[in-house]
UniProtKB/TrEMBL annotation:
Required for the formation of a threonylcarbamoyl group on adenosine at position 37 (t(6)A37) in mitochondrial tRNAs that read codons beginning with adenine. Probably involved in the transfer of the threonylcarbamoyl moiety of threonylcarbamoyl-AMP (TC-AMP) to the N6 group of A37. Involved in mitochondrial genome maintenance. The keyword rRNA processing does not apply. It comes from the Eukaryota. This is N(6)-L-threonylcarbamoyladenine synthase. GO terms for biological process: tRNA threonylcarbamoyladenosine modification. It is found in: Mitochondrion. GO terms for molecular function: metal ion binding; tRNA N(6)-L-threonylcarbamoyladenine synthase activity. Homodimer. The keyword NAD does not apply. The lineage of its organism: Eukaryota, Metazoa, Spiralia, Lophotrochozoa, Annelida. Belongs to the KAE1 / TsaD family. GO terms for cellular component: mitochondrion. It comes from Owenia fusiformis. The chain holds residues 50 to 414 of 432 of the full protein. Binds 1 divalent metal cation per subunit. It is an enzyme of class 2 (transferase).
């Protein structure tokens, strides 16, 4: 069985073909990060235009690399939510046209479900498992109980960890430093943090009086902005110069975000034990989403998991950020589990069918 997956929910145009053994036969990705960083953030119509410009090449490249003809595909999977409406529409329309033209079933994919199931493509992970999705738009802790069954344990109450990284990277003007071009805010901070002292600046804890597993990153972001303004004032910085001790700052900020994530997840691990959410012999926790590619976050979370007898499983970094592979793989999982597959002639009206075949994901609610 071969499935083509198409992803355009945010600022990456991705496509990939996978088979039912989880082999990636061909993949292609066009990242817009560079352009959006220069513009100071994602502007939806700009993202849409770039998707439009690139989608044909990206899909064709993935198919060429897979050495497959469209006729040989068994289905086409495409991200339908959540994401930027203008960006999503480009992928959905493209996939719909292909599905119609080649009379293939169209499988609607929930982007966060795709992040959550990604590691199953190459590692043996059985349901149920815990999953932390830390990305550019979300922070979600859930028990994954099946391909389309997720029980939410905790969620971000304000902005996401990825957004906090991106905003602070911009505020720190990291893009002006050598070697930082083309990197996302999170990746830039991680790189600088490697030569900084994570204990040099102390950030306050968030939600410490809230005995649940929710997350909050707005306070850390505000505090970081305040600290940066203070340092700039002390050093009389008004122009494009970067603050002194920027590596220490990045290390401390990354540490604060990571500590918060770990504290909330720790409670989640205890809670999952109490409620016997994870019944498998080998207890596993998945970390996915763009922030999951951060090695400091991974190493820290691994320690917490180990303490509670959980094994931490992370997709390879490039499968943590957005990509076509995870969409194709989620299509395969849905096809195998027989859930929510749209048959060909009905594929024309994706929106109607979405109601008949609900995506079943409650973890973003
Ligand atoms: P969502 O998946 O919630 O819809 P998204 O698809 O935009 O949002 P992803 O592509 O999964 O998000 O992740 C992008 C985010 O990950 C960005 O905010 C980026 O800064 C962050 N990120 C990428 N690499 C790293 C890293 N090494 N360390 C920390 N954050 C990172
Ligand atoms: Fe994502």
């Amino acid at each position: 069985t071969y499935i083509l997956g198409i992803e355009t929910s945010c600022d990456d145009t991705g496509a990939a073909v996978v088979d039912n053994g989880g082999n990636i036969l061909g993949e292609a990705l066009n990242s817009q990060t560079d352009i959006h960083v220069q513009l100071g953030g994602i502007i939806p119509p700009v993202a849409r235009d770039l998707h439009r410009q690139n989608i044909d090449d990206v899909v064709k490249l993935a198919m060429d690399r897979a050495k497959l003809k469209y006729e040989e595909l068994n289905a086409i999977a495409v991200t339908v939510k959540p994401g930027l409406a203008l960006s999503l529409a480009v992928g959905i329309n493209y996939a719909k046209d292909l599905a119609l033209k080649f009379r293939k079933p169209l499988i609607p994919i929930h982007h966060m479900e795709a992040h959550a199931l990604t590691p199953r493509i190459e590692t043996r992970i059985d349901f149920p498992y815990l999953v932390l999705l830390a990305s550019g738009g979300h922070c979600l802790l859930a028990a994954a109980q099946g391909v389309d069954q997720f029980k939410l344990i905790g969620k971000g109450q304000d902005n996401s960890p990825g957004e906090a990284f991106d905003k602070i990277a911009r505020r720190l003007k990291l893009i002006t430093l050598p070697g930082m071009q083309g990197l996302s805010g999170g990746a830039a901070i991680e790189q600088l943090a490697q030569r900084g002292d994570p204990k040099s600046i102390e950030f306050p804890n968030s939600l410490s009086k809230h005995p649940n597993c929710n997350f909050s990153f707005a306070g850390l972001q505000t505090q970081a902005n305040y600290f940066i303004a203070e340092i700039e004032k002390q050093n009389d910085i008004k122009g494009p110069e970067v603050i002194p001790g920027v590596a220490d700052f990045c290390a401390s900020f990354q540490y604060a975000i990571t500590r918060h994530i770990c504290q909330r997840v720790q409670r989640g691990l205890i809670y999952s034990d109490m409620k016997e959410l994870i019944t498998t012999d080998k207890k596993q926790m998945v970390l996915s989403g763009g922030v999951g590619s951060n090695m400091f976050v991974r190493r820290s979370l691994e320690k917490v998991c180990k303490h509670y007898n959980f094994e931490l499983v992370c997709p390879p970094p490039k499968l943590c950020t957005d990509n076509g592979v995870m969409i194709a793989w989620n299509g395969m999982e849905r096809l195998n589990a027989n859930c929510g597959v749209l048959e060909d002639e009905s594929a024309i009206k994706l929106v109607d069918l979405e109601h008949r075949a609900p995506l079943g994901m409650d973890i973003t609610q």
